[in-house]
Amino acid sequence: MQDKNTHNFKDRLIQSNIHIEKRAYKRVRTNIDVRFYCGNIFYSGTAINISRSGLLIKTGNCLPITSGIVIIIRNDNTLLQVISRVRRLNTIEGHLDGMGIEILNPSNIYRNFVNSHVSL
What we know:
This protein is of the alpha+beta class. Helices cover 23% and strands 48% of the residues.
């Protein structure tokens, strides 16, 4: 007979696996410097993971969820501008630490950038 704690652990494990499987594309760890702006204000951060449909930006300048932002990524000698939206905020020890970003209508240029930097 299983005790209550074992049952709860299994439920949490199943729920976490369901959450992991929801991703449409694999995310890969990166360390890419990015700039982003909302309105007329520019911010900086580091993309610590990236996929074909989004990225996670580590920054001390988190914007509200649903904020529309433009991310600027250096791609060789050009700047890639990516229209996106803040989908979630990350916290560490109660402090905002980063933003989960959804790329809105990813362009072929963005997809090629992702493909050239990570093996998906």
